[in-house]
Amino acid sequence: MDFEPTYTPEQEEFRQEVREWLKENVSPDISHPPDSINITEEQYQLRRALGRKLGEKGWLWATAPEEYGGGGLALDHAVVIEEEVDSYGLTVPPYYDSGGRLGGASIMVWGTEEQKQTFLPPIFRGEVRTWQLLTEPEAGSDLANAKMSAERDGDEYVINGQKIYVGSSLGADYMWTITCTDNEAPRHQNLGWFMIPADLPGITIQPMDLLISGGEAGAGSGVKNTVFFDNVRVPAFNLIGGENEGWKVATTHLELEHGTGGRIARNWLVDHLFEYCRENKRNGQPLTKDPEVRDKLIDIYVEAEIARLFNLRNYWMRHSKADITYEGPQASYWRKMSGLRMSQSILDILGPSALTYDPQWGAADGHVEAHQRSAIVAIHPGGTADIQKLIMARRIGIGREVREKAGALA
Amino acid sequence: MDLSLTPEQEMLKTAVRGFIQQEYPKETLLEIAAEEQPVTAEPWQRLVATGWLGISIPQEYGGEGGSFTDAGVLFEELGRGPVPGPHLSSCVLAASAILEGGTEEQKRQWLPALARGERILVPAMNEGSYSWAEEDVQVVARQDGGGLRLDGTKVYVFDAVSATHLLCTARSEESNEVGLVIVPVTANGVAIRSLPGFTWNMYEVKLDGVSVDQSSLIGSSFAGGWDALQKAIARTIPVMCAYQVGACQSVYELSVDYSRTRIQFGRPIGRFQRVEDHIINLVNQLDAARWTTYETLWKLDSGQEATDSIHLAKAVGSAAYYQACNFAHEVHAGVGSMTEYGLTLHTTASRSLYHYLGDPQFHRRRLADALSL
Predict the structure, then answer these.
(1) Fold of the CATH domain A261-396
(2) What is the mean pLDDT of residues B282-293?
(3) Average model confidence (pLDDT) for chain B?
(4) CB neighbours of A320 closer than 8 A, spacing ≥ 6?
(5) A307 to chain B: closest CA residue
(6) Which of A55, B173, B204, B342 is most deeply buried (CB count within 10 A of its CB)?
(7) DSSP code of A399?
(8) Which of these CATH numbers, 3.10.20.80, 1.10.375.10, 1.10.540.10, 1.10.3720.10, describes A9-124?
(9) Are A396 and B271 in contact (CB < 8 Å)?
């Protein structure tokens, strides 16, 4: 076994190249508000600019095929890029985007050649930002109950309905969305996915007031929105996977969203917290010297280590094309539930300073306060914690002789 | 990055699994558990004859010279049984202590014999004031003529009834240093008694004026003995953790099977989400144990500093085995508590292994030290 990406001399050379390139190209003006709702247009544009430059280099979606605008690089190169970008507290891409990992990867599996040629290059080059639009007021955990209608009218579909808890601050170029393409057909045989230009007439975006919206360190998603579609006319070409064939596309999308892709980024929250506890005193000694604080810090560390290893395993499984079953939702479930457990340990350690981002009294520059809120809100995106368990049970085959298969990945 | 086993390791895994299905079926394991007898009869002799138990002993000393991960693969399969010791105690822990602290002569004398199962050397470490601290070693060793005389009591000694020799921690009366002394179980003054109750291969060892040769002192000096044992424990923990991973895997498979075949309210109980939850909790514990363990084995194999990982793996792994058994009992209810079903073999092992080489809280605190908190 080898838990580390193997760094050949060639890779180390590549790392130097990436490092130098990032030094040149990551703007020193990029900052990290603890709550990404505070991300400004200027900050967003700095990140988009970096994304476009990464895209030009083929480093934005490094493992995506070159012929569709990706980097065409091996996993070990992608790992180097992710590690180096991570050292700036940023992710790849450095902003919220559902285009590459979810929409793009789904189009790779289900799109026609012409659709791939049309939609993928702008995504993989970082020229466009895509939101995923799945949830509706009556289609949360029960995604197959999506009611936003897409009716064929000549060479176009006319879309009407509402999506909720979606997107980010500062708009999108594309909306990757699931609709109902046949009101009469049975469940799972009545859906269709579209890649919709976000500037079409009839689309209205309304920001939502939530406990917290983003919180994902580095990705900077900002607010969540309700999006209304009022007679939006979309070219039929933008239907991916065929009319009433949307559920099979959904299996791919959901497979990726349920954590199968894996992450190898480090947990900045643990770093922030350890640092805070080393530097701050209570009763005349650093917090880290208090036995009860030490126990709680280890609780947090252990939770984070298990999450790291689940993600690492999934990352390897996906890229080595190992037979993956319940591991994706397991990683999501662990992240969600351990996040909640960690937030209680943090509240125990820090007291009410964990609850404010006041510049004078808030702990760790407000990162901790944001986590207290985001740990709660994180229960639902990408499928609730309970839905993750439901998928695990089917994949393991608990009480079932036949184990459900994972969705197809490119 | 490659989290798969090598083809050789896969072959070993398959071979060990087949051997254990053949030689250690549930009925045999239940008999061994019921008898409290030395495990030196069949099928132990056939296990020894495979040569696998020398996996952690270097080839120059008659072992297989396997990697840590190789040993992990072997012990994961043994844990599925759970096949009881003295494999880990004698062939890994005691062998490592001699490797770390023994003289060249002691290594030549002991390691090939341990690898071949001709001698079984079992560490006797804990005493009445159960702890893993050097201060709590109270068994006294006095210079007596040309040799040493030992007095005191060891408790919670794994596998003692199967041992030919004991590797005792003992405090020198002269220097107050804690060293390692080999004691033949046949020596006058040695009394071994099984600890009754919810224990797994756990014994009391009384040392009443036991005389041994000076050559029984590991490293021919008390100084360095304690450190050698600590290093040996650090090398043994990840292998023991692999044993717990295999054990959790076995408990998990039992539970999934039962969820499919047990019918209540007209359907398999696994279709009830309450029951699903137990198995999901179980598999999360299993995988947490698995990946903390194998990352540690890999770190040791690749020569990296692994102190924090060793503590993490033991803290996670022993808690996982304990919890996995609890979840399995929730799935199985009455059937799980029947001795003949076999789940209680694991439940019993999980409680004793929880404490063996340090309990989860002990290792969590040392993890904090290792992280420089």
Answers:
(1) Butyryl-CoA Dehydrogenase, subunit A; domain 3 (1.20.140)
(2) 98
(3) 96
(4) B2, B3, B4
(5) B288
(6) A55
(7) T
(8) 1.10.540.10
(9) no
